[in-house]
Model the fold of this input.
Amino acid sequence: MEPLAISSLVFIIFVLDKRSLGLQTDFGILRCFVSFFLGVLTVRIVDRLPAKPGPAVQGVLQFAAMIASIALVSVAETNPAATFLAPVTFAIFLGSLLAFPDALLVPRMLVAGPLVWLGKRSYSIYMVHALVVLLAEYFVRAVGAGRIAALDSVWAGLPATLNLVVSLAAVLAVSHFTYLYIEIPGGRFMRNVLGSRRDFARSPAPSARLTN
Done:
């Protein structure tokens, strides 16, 4: 599995000569190989950790990994090559959460109400956001360049800001309903269908603190 992740990344960089990891229809499956199998490797490493440092050290490591992940996302737009570091950076952060579920600060931050709300709907957000962005793009085209320029003359950047705010609100609203009326019923249906199988069972929570 690990060689497949490494070879996929090498193929993307040196054979396809891509300038970022933002592949979609152009060999996007290779990007999936990199992320998926690196995730498998991360779980294996976490399972084999010989010992854990104290809670304070765990907290520092987790916080540093979280800041690195945020920084990478922040610079990815202006520095596309930074996206090649994304799988490793995110794997380290997620691995630290798996390895140190009782560390100081970060686990407590992640159980905050708004983040839990977003986390539950994260898959729905992932599934609907592209459609909402596409519809927003069509709406902007329908409004026309003249009206957009008029808004921009009132306040520079106002059209882009409005588009971002409205699109984000629409994504959250639509994903909320898809979560309630598609994702939850779909999961319940699959559990009813597969629940009798011995190889199908819910994964236990990694830490009781994270479930409270």
Observations:
- The chain has a mean pLDDT of 88.
